[in-house]
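Suppose a classmate hands you a notebook page containing two proteins, each written out with its sequence and a corresponding row of structure tokens. How would you begin to make sense of it? This section walks through that situation. The first entry is reproduced here exactly as it would appear on such a page.
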Amino acid sequence: MISHRPTPLLRRAILPLAMAMVFASPVLAQTEAPAAAAAPHVTQAGPASVADLAEGLLGAVVNISTSQRIKGGEGQGTVPLPEVPEGSPFQDFFDEFFKDRQGGGGQRQVQSLGSGFVIDAAEGILVTNNHVIADADEIEVNFSDGSKLKAELVGTDSKTDIAVLKVDPTLKKLKEVHFGDSDRMRIGDWVMAIGNPFGLGGTVTVGIISARNRDIDAGPYDDFIQTDAAINRGNSGGPLFNMYGEVVGINTAIISPSGGSIGIGFSIPAELAVSVVSQLREFGETRRGWLGVRIQPVTDEIAESLGIKEAHGALVSGIIKDGPVDNGLIEVGDVIIRFDGRDIKESRELPLAVAESPVGKAVDVVVIRKGVETTVKVTLGRLEEGEKLAEAEGAQAGEEGGPVATASLLGMTFGELTDEMRDKFGIDPDVSGVVVTEVADGSPAAERGVTAGDVITEIAQESVSTPEDVLDRIAALKEQGRKNALLMLASKTGELRFVTIRMD
């Protein structure tokens, strides 16, 4: 699995200015391009030339320059070293250049470079990546003709890594490009990337769509287009065009052990970007739909145990407290196979489908419950409110944000140990933890003698007090490669025992 955390392999295509200082040279000014470029003839051997197409688009693609003032000091606040490909002829230069500049006092200014593109010339609206402008004190837009304009931030979305900027359109005549239909793009279709690699200015590269629907663990809504069109540091936020000059993706990340392109780049699909950009322009923030469930994949084993012929859909493993379905409409153990007319083949498709739906919309959700398909009508809440609720109550966010009231895992359904649960199972007041309310026949938990009314007090020698604690602890053990989970259980009267439950 590819980590979304900064690693030598998965890299954001953003470039520190110091590297741009070395690699960059004056870029020839571009002449004013025609209002629209005609689509070139495409043969089976690929496009004969993209010169006309590129000429008509270069003027709408910009370089984004940001600066951030940070405090220097002994052991902290130092200017971060730019990553230079191993063996680069400039490696010695960077080592020497920065060696004497670490650990100094006072205030320092860090600059970085990325790419972006104009989508509304009349309003002066541009799109780029959130990580290009994150924490910036100043944002400057550099155009292909050499002119520059200061930009203000309209809104950002860290979950999809999209940011919207605005410049004053009265100061310069702008050229715009438009989003196309990324859903119609097929593996093997030709695409063209334009951006600012290594600070070199408007650079055109051509390739094909290598894959679609890539999940690279960069965020909750990963659905990337993969391309072999060369994307390097500094390309972040730049557009990926189809052969009709329409933006079908926003270039955002690469896989590379060296920092340079090896032909594996990723772009946010236009279909996802359009709705996010629209909300940022209108509200300055996103307003996503929220179903209020925690989910997990449906494996072949789970499908067999639930009596489902084919492993598909999203298994509901938890219901978010005070969420839209915390009323019995959807239950733990349900498998969601269709949302608002959209088939859910894999669990990761559900959060994306829900997030793209308007807040307050009443949608039909088809679930398989105890082997029978059932349709329920759910009115969506707002994801951001669920996340605020989780933060206010000091709980970690679930799949969609919010504290978990009940959950299901390893064949156990468990919930908060409330007074009602104590009365129901006759649990002593001195017992604390998470109460098991149901155990599936033949499940790993049932094999180890776990029964309804048992209370989970510890997992791997760490105490748990909420259903979410249980889910998070089991998830952490799986990430560590553990095959079994050690649980300390309390009986109704408080007698303790250890059980080991298989997690595979």
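The notebook's second entry, a different protein, reads as follows.
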Amino acid sequence: MKHFLSQPFTLIDNTKQKLILIGFCLVFGIIFINIFLPFNINLWEKDSGIQQFFRLSSFSFIAAIVIACSQFLVRKLLKINSFLLGGFLLWFFGEVIIISLILHLIYGNLTFPFWPEYLQSFRYTFFGTLIPYFSSILIIYMLQQKELNASVVSSKGTGLIGIPDENGVVKLSLLLSNILYIESADNYIAVYYLDVDQIKSILIRNTLKNIENIFTNSSLKRCHRSYIVNINMIKMVQKKSSKLYLHIKNTTTVIPVSRNYTTAFESIIPSVPK
């Protein structure tokens, strides 16, 4: 279980993915709550028609605003670029806690004891948020796989993969086994690879985040805000003062592993020194 929860979770890391999450939760929530009226929510107030529509829809708007603040503002303030799976699940529960608290303060009966009323609000919010939230995660995953299939150029004879630019246009096709590492260079990425016995590089206009998301299920792994490495091209992992350093095959390059990615790398590479 610990190993499972320590797996990297990168499905809501870039702006597009976050907007899909927020937008889907908002639209799905408005449609679902007004059509199916869960928990007899239409009977909570004596209203009808357009007034009831706006009241019910406000639940979804509040949830979407909280998720937007959580994903864009709080994560930025806390400098959380990526989650591990366990951290993502805890973050989701935290969002539900805040949403349910706000809804309770606005719509709850504050004359009743707080905890029984709040726990009921949390239960309604949890089940009301669970389906759209994780449905959007599934949609993001499917879009990511579609992007991967469009970007990775493969054949039975060559096994080439395609490295795309920011518009999805493949700019470099090569064997995955020949890629050494990828480095961030302002608005570009520098792809370092082996050509026979020579080390070469090429600049492509894209971000490490996009490349990380496209090649999630490959041997290309993010280890630092400025680096993605091919874990099959690591010749040595060195630990100095609790920090990990990766020595790349066929080069004298040493790449640091930042604190945010250390746990993930310890699970990816079992031989990483503890």
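A careful reader of the second entry would note: Helices lie at 2-5, 15-36, 49-77, 85-107, 114-151, 208-214, 259-268.
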